[in-house]
Amino acid sequence: MSATQIILLIAAYFGVLILISYLTGKEDSNAAFFKANKSAPWYLVAFGMIGASLSGVTFISVPGAVETKQFGYFQVVLGYFFGYLVIAYVLLPLYYRMNLISIYSYLKERFGMVSYKTGSVAFLISRTVGAAFRLFLVAKVLQLLIFNQFGIPFPITVIFTIALIWLYTFKGGIKTIIFTDTLQTLFMLISVVVTISFLASALDLNSISAVISNVRASEMSTIFFLDDVNDAQFFIKSFLAGMFITITMTGLDQDMMQKNLTCRNLKDAQKNMIVFSIVLIAVNLLFLALGLLLTQYAQQHGITAKKDDLFPTIAMLPEIGMVTSAFFLLGLIAAAYSSADSALTSLTTSFCIDIIDLEKRPEDRQKKIRKQVHIMVSIILIIVIILFDTIFKDVSVIWELFKAAGYTYGPLLGLFAFGIYTKKQIKDQHVWIIAIVAPILSYILNMYSVDLFNGYQIGFEILIVNGLIMALGLFLISKKKTPITA
Asked: Cα separation of 5 and 322, whole Å?
């Protein structure tokens, strides 16, 4: 596809999103922006969350990592399922019982104002970094495919990328996103199926059973790593990491939970979560199979692209054909924007509700303030993505994303776990100190784990370590019970 054709395709795609935004954003209220008036059908939320959970990072990085990591990522995915069960039957009942807009309001009720603000700031940092990673990846691909041909610098590409998101979310917020995410998930899944179909034909795999047999016969389809406990991909480590990544990056994340809280009631929200978790397992397996076929195709045709460059490079080859290339682009854009648009909305929500107490501001100014915050968050994302371009070169973004999540979400994991599973009160004014110390200690342990633990290499389970350190710190600042006097 030529750059002009790509631009026309993107313009048509976003024309559809803006039309959806217009139809769903007629009620330009804070209630619609933040909670979709608690009227969203659970099945739409569940389907749309697939795209939001996978994102452009999964779309590009999971297939690109198969050559070196095999199907080891699926161990993490299996952990996801059990994490979703915890969310459905532990966290969601809590959130619905308290009728929360921001889930971090729980920390205010449980511990106090400092814990509440600390949790909110931890989310803002975590989601900003996560959204920036996801958008960084899609901006890199757009730069490679389009903007380099016109001599446009990367910062302009980033501004263009964020501006498109702002354009279709600034009025409807989460209400718009529920519908756009549904469309974007559909495009993403069609894209994967179309690409697999082309690759199967090119590799002379003329039936679904032939594709399955090819995948099973390949050494790259190894799922379980059980031999070396020191291996970062060892099963127990990957499984537990996946479980806790889900609990934190979904259950303790305003972005993902804001969608669940738009359902009519707790029962619908739980149905959404269970159905979504089952489908997500199948979809991730599909991405891993795609990665194996892409790697085999590259090896047969002497293509040297690796990691995050593998899928885009093959998808845009002339011999692939315009239809497959077009679906790849639609799938990439859909995957990237289905997570990034909700991040922009949830960051706006959290800052408005948790940081500046929007509901306490004069009612006639609340909408204007919300829109100003929306613009501010967009600008911050632009700056962070441009910084990433100078830091991360030749990396698999999904692994960097999970590493970052281990440090930024750890304090949230410790705070919520301590609050839910203990009855202790804490010295609230000291919580922010523990939230800073815990990631620092976790980083030091990770750096020297091989020397300290007889060759043991910490992987994604750094999130669990970080959460445990946070919880231990909270225990150390817990209040002693006042003695009962006669």
From this structure: 10
Backbone angles phi, psi at 306, to 5 degrees: -130, 165
φ, ψ (nearest 5 deg) of residue 422? -130, 165
d(CA 113, CA 462): 28
Residue 333's H or E segment, with its range, is helix 322-350
Element of type H or E holding 100:
none
Q: Are 342 and 377 in contact (CB under 8 A)?
A: no
Interhelix angle 397-408/42-69, rounded to 10 degrees, is 120
Q: Specify the pLDDT at position 416.
A: 94
Q: Residue 280: how many CB atoms within 10 A of its CB?
A: 20
Q: Read off the tokens for 387.
A: 């910084």
- 296 burial (CB, 10 Å; 0-12 / 13-18 / 19+) is buried
The tokens describing 22, both together, are 């217009």
CA gyration radius for the chain?
22
| Distance (Å, whole) CA 265 – CA 228 | 45
> Is pLDDT larger for residue 78 or for residue 183?
78
Q: Tell me the two tokens of residue 127.
A: 């989601």
Distance CA 46, CA 139 (A): 27
Look up tokens 């995948």; give the residue. Answer: 215
Q: Half-sphere exposure of residue 164, counting CA atoms within 13 Å on the CB side?
A: 22
- State both tokens at 341: 């648009």
pLDDT in tens, 194-232: 889 989 998 999 899 999 999 999 999 999 998 888 777
Over residues 435-485, the pLDDT tens digits come to 999 999 999 998 888 888 887 877 778 888 999 999 999 999 998 654 443
Q: Which residues contact 301 (CB under 8 A, 6 or more apart)?
A: none
